[in-house]
Design a protein that fits this description.
Helix content is 6%, strand content 39%. The protein is built from 4 helices and 34 strands. Strand 24 (363-365), helix 3 (373-379) and strand 25 (411-413) form a beta-alpha-beta unit. It is globular, with a radius of gyration of 22 Å.
Length: 539
């Protein structure tokens, strides 16, 4: 059972009444095997609506258990409960779970480890130890108040006050040193670090002083191993790395700080944990030895981020769809709404008296208030959503250039794009330079997809198709769309339901940077959505 509750949590010298699961921050680690069926009863003892999303779980035929509020379920009201039931089918590796309601996932999150089936093994030598490394973001405030203030004012929300590693900010913050996370390693052994970016709004660089990292998996899919001294993870992404205890026994900092690709304020602090050798000397002649610090890329080092994100390959040739039924082109980016008539200037504190917004293909996504989209689809309830999400932008423009101000204000709507069961889909995700370009981590629920190419500038179908990797592209559930650039993904729509695709920077999904695919049932029962559970929450 998972109990959502307020718990006193002290960070940065101050106690906050923090929303947690079972009083733990971060929440409990779920350890399961490929093939297991999970039954998780979530009881809401907090004062906010809540849902839980099992990030990266494919939810074959069980969309009711996916978790995003007003997409696949109504939220669990305070005092209510809901049981999530789903089976893990042919997935193994590192995923995670988190709240999918307002900004609760700032503190409501945890690791989800899927081990191989009994008698099966990793495609690399079994590491001596395995350690989840959850990267988070901490506000010295109630995160719900932060987003509510931003919604009220139309301005960008306040940036966080700290980053955390397994819930702890580390040595460089006030009142934090005694609780810094310590990761133990032994000389000569290989450890597996399961790194998860659970931060709310920030892509992060990750490095360990004097140690190389061998990447072996990402988003619970194995990759061709490659070695690097730095990782870059967008929110939502996971990366499994092997680290060898091959340095002189001692204490080495693990450090995390922002990859800030946008123009505008960001949290420029650095979180640390300590990689400590079991046989490390604590002090020399009574003087405590400070850990060695790694070199981290500059905050705006897009070249390093790109080198990393373009290093991923599947371990062997994969079955990429080559014939495409649905060729889609989605712009992703920010916008500004003009101040609504009759509004006070207090509610229009964005640039030049506007309100921040965001969109895909110029549609700023609005959650329906009274039904989830999946429920409305399943029960045929009219007026909740429409199926006219555009397959390409309503206006073609120089997406990454100087964009005319007439294109900065999107249209609000609750629109889905319909896919026939089994459709072979390609989506070009095109970043825009409206307000500012930024690296957008785009997450698709209910599916993994192949990232067959990425690049900078505007996608050119004449020349950029030559860059497509149709042999061994990586399998992911969250794609980093490069700042003022594009990514191309492909998947087969073989899982019926309503599946949210959104930017995993929560500030952007709050502003409307999202859409949903409605995948129709196939022919047989095994190609059809299950009936909704009896305890599905009502709105």
């Amino acid at each position: 059972m998972e109990q959502i509750q307020a718990t006193p949590v002290k960070r940065l010298c101050k106690i906050h009444n923090t929303i947690t699961v079972n009083g733990q921050f971060p929440g409990p680690t779920l350890e399961v095997n490929n093939g297991d069926t999970l039954v998780i009863n979530v009881v809401n003892r907090a004062r906010y609506n809540v849902t839980i999303h099992w990030h990266g779980i494919k939810q074959i035929r069980t969309a009711w258990a996916d978790g995003p509020e007003f997409i696949t379920q109504c939220p669990i009201r305070p005092g209510g409960s809901y049981t999530y039931r789903f089976t893990i089918q042919e997935q193994e590796g590192t995923l995670w779970w988190h709240a999918h309601s307002s900004w609760l996932r700032a503190t409501v999150y945890g690791t989800l480890i899927i081990y191989p089936k009994e008698g099966e093994f990793y495609p690399f030598l079994k590491p001596r130890r395995e350690t989840p490394i959850l990267l988070g973001e901490w506000w010295d405030a109630n995160p719900i108040d932060v987003v509510r203030q931003a919604t009220r004012t139309g301005a960008a929300p306040n940036v966080s006050d700290a980053y955390t590693i397994n819930g702890q900010p580390g040595d460089l913050y006030r009142c934090s040193r005694k609780d810094t996370t310590v990761v133990i390693v032994d000389s000569g052994e290989t450890n597996l670090l399961r790194v998860i970016n659970a931060a709310l709004n920030q892509a992060l660089f990750f490095a360990v002083a004097n140690h190389k990292l061998t990447v072996v998996a990402a988003d619970a899919s194995y990759v061709q191993p490659f070695t690097t001294s730095v990782l870059m993870l967008g929110p939502g992404q996971t990366t499994d790395v092997l680290i060898d205890g091959n340095q002189p026994p001692g204490r080495y900092y693990i450090a995390v700080r922002a990859y800030a690709s946008a123009q505008g304020p960001f949290d420029n602090t650095t979180s640390t944990a300590i990689l400590e050798y079991k046989d490390a000397p604590c002090s020399v002649q009574g003087i405590k030895i400070n850990p060695i610090f790694p070199s981290l890329p500059a905050f705006n080092d897009t070249a390093t981020a790109t080198t990393f994100s373009t290093s991923f390959r599947s371990p062997r040739q994969v079955d990429v769809p080559t014939e495409i039924d649905e060729n889609l082109f989605f712009t992703v980016g920010l916008g500004l709404n003009n101040c609504p008539r009759g509004s006070s200037s207090r509610s229009c504190q964005g640039p030049n008296g506007t309100r921040f917004t965001a969109s895909m293909n110029n549609i700023s996504f609005v959650l329906p208030p009274n039904f989830s989209i999946l429920q409305a689809h399943h029960q045929g309830i009219p007026g909740v959503f429409s199926t006219d999400f555009p397959a390409f932008p309503p206006v073609k423009f120089d997406y990454t250039g100087n964009v005319s101000r007439s294109l900065w204000q999107p249209v609000r709507g609750t629109k889905v794009y319909k896919l026939k069961y089994g459709a072979r889909v390609q989506v070009v995700l095109q970043g825009t330079n409206i307000v500012t370009g930024e690296d957008h981590p785009i997450h698709l629920h209910g599916y993994d997809f192949y990232i067959i190419a990425e690049g900078f500038g505007n996608f050119n179908p004449q020349t950029d198709t030559a860059k497509f990797n149709l042999v061994d592209p990586p399998t992911r559930n969250t794609a980093s769309v490069p700042v003022n650039g594009w990514s191309v993904i492909r998947f087969v729509a073989s899982n019926p339901g309503v599946w949210l695709m959104h930017c995993h920077l929560d500030v952007h999904i709050t502003w409307g940077l999202a859409m949903s695919f409605l995948v129709e049932n196939g022919v047989s029962e095994l190609e059809s959505l299950e009936e909704p559970p009896v305890d599905l929450p009502v709105c």
